[in-house]
Design brief:
Bound molecules: pyridoxal-5'-phosphate
Largest sheet: 7 strands, mixed
CATH architecture of the largest domain: 3-Layer(aba) Sandwich
Number of strands: 14
Strand order of the largest sheet: 4-10-9-8-7-5-6
Shape: globular
CATH superfamily of the largest domain: Type I PLP-dependent aspartate aminotransferase-like (Major domain)
Distance between the termini: 19 Å
Number of helices: 13
Structural class: alpha/beta
Length: 432
């Protein structure tokens, strides 16, 4: 259903006191039209809005909810942690529990530091790379989103891809001038930048699997090239695993590609739905952080015990049983992909689906999925807007932007997926 009376009323009120009625831009439905639904509660694969309509959710809070909404392990861990105190601003055992799980699971992480968001994790990792190398420049790839820190709001995806602006107002030219932007999947251009300016470059940052402007899967060769060029020039390779970390497998995109970054950043799944980010890497780099070293970074709520408990409960569930959860997620993702491809074919569309594990992106343009932002057909956004509205009528909730991916959780069982595929079939019949 489109937004009901209660959602509409709340939205009108929200717009008076919150810019566009939201606290994060894409939530406003700006690029698909209509008005946002106000969630009332959520459980497993579904949520119910304030008007009492229930939807199957493929947003999952934009990635964190890999176990589904309100998973009992996580809710229990959070409740019992909260009962013992919401925040200490001092060391607690919960920090060690989560850090140990992360460090024991990901081979290239010797130490981690927790922060409160993915943005903060990336911002801090960049500062650390600059501190370690004594250099200022950073290389990023167009279409990759790394949060909203100033020097990375250059050719970013996510909400920004929707706005069609390469950058944001309020970012000084001088900051942006330290950021060099290269197209994804373009080995020649990347090599040229590193050849020309390699000795000025503090870090090369890339999303594990770029998933904020569609799902732009990179080749292992390209990822290895980044690794090799960083080693050659002394730049640090930062793998932004905010989406991919603990989402596509225990070792994230690093494991997927068989590469070992110098620093990696985390968020989303690692907090299990609570505000957690993390960055980590080799001990020699991490020991440059204050108070051991000269690179300052701090946080009043960093390592918050309630948030740590949510993250630990989530990872514990994912990692138990030798990572069977990831096989299950991949099976669900594969079934969904196949179902969608079949439906597209049945409707005479030459569209496809890009997928890595439980992350899927609807490629509403002809041919195989693109590998770079520049190859995304902007016309797909109009089709997506119609499809999005038709799916809402069918009780299926996808992200309100053509550039966003879909997330499958462990709470989406095969019958949920099969029902959603049928809903796509009906939605496509409707929009023609
Ligand atoms: C979501 C995201 C971020 C920012 O994380 P926030 O918690 O929203 O600040 C950074 N990098 C990537 C790859 C992301 O997907």
């Amino acid at each position: 259903m489109s937004a009901g009376d209660i959602s509409r009323k709340l939205y009108a009120k929200a717009c008076e006191i919150l810019p566009a009625g939201v606290n994060s831009p894409v939530r406003a439905f700006g690029s698909v039209g209509g008005e946002p639904l106000f969630y009332a509660s959520a459980r497993g694969a579904t949520f119910t809005d304030v008007d009492g309509e229930t939807y199957v959710d493929y947003v999952g809070s934009w990635g964190p909810l890999i176990l589904g909404h309100a998973h009992s392990d996580v809710v229990q861990a959070v409740s019992s942690a909260a009962a013992k105190g919401l925040s200490y601003g001092a060391p607690c055992a919960e920090e060690i529990a989560l850090a140990a799980m992360v460090v024991e699971t990901v081979p290239h992480l010797e130490m981690v530091r927790f922060v409160s968001s993915g943005t903060e994790a990336v911002m801090s990792a960049i500062r650390l790379a600059r501190g370690v190398t004594g250099r200022d420049a950073v290389v990023k790839f167009s279409g990759c989103y790394h949060g909203h820190a100033d020097h990375l709001l250059v050719s970013a995806g996510s909400g920004l891809a929707t706005f069609g602006t390469p950058s944001s107002a309020g970012v000084p030219e001088a900051f942006a001038s330290h950021t060099l932007v290269v197209e994804l999947d373009d080995a020649e251009a990347f090599r040229a930048v590193m050849a020309e300016r390699g000795d000025e470059i503090a870090a090369v940052i890339i999303e594990g699997i770029p998933a904020n402007a569609g799902l732009l899967v990179q080749s292992s060769e390209f990822m290895r090239l980044i690794r090799d060029e960083c080693t050659r020039t002394g730049a640090l390779m930062i793998l932004d695993e905010v989406i991919t970390g603990f989402r596509i497998g225990p070792g994230g995109a690093a494991e997927h590609y068989g590469i070992s970054p110098d620093l990696a950043t985390y968020g989303k799944v690692i907090g299990g739905g609570m505000p957690v980010g993390a960055y980590g890497g080799k001990r020699e780099y991490m020991e440059q952080l204050a108070p051991l070293g000269p690179v300052y970074q701090a946080g009043t709520l960093s390592g918050n015990p309630v948030a740590m408990a949510a993250g630990a409960a989530t990872l514990r569930r994912l990692l138990q049983g030798g990572g069977r959860a990831y096989t299950q997620l991949d099976d669900l993702g594969a079934a969904f992909e196949k179902g969608l491809r079949d439906v597209f074919k049945d409707h005479g569309k030459k569209w496809s689906v890009a997928r890595v594990g439980s992350i899927l992106w609807l490629v509403l343009q002809d041919g195989e999925p693109p590998h770079k932002y520049e190859d995304i057909d902007p016309a797909a956004a109009d089709i997506y807007a119609k499809l999005h509205a038709a799916l809402l009528e069918q009780g299926v909730y996808c992200a309100p932007s053509a550039y966003e991916v879909m997330f499958v959780s462990l709470a989406h069982d095969p019958s949920t997926i099969a029902d959603t595929v049928k809903a796509f079939d009906r939605a496509l019949s409707e929009i023609g």
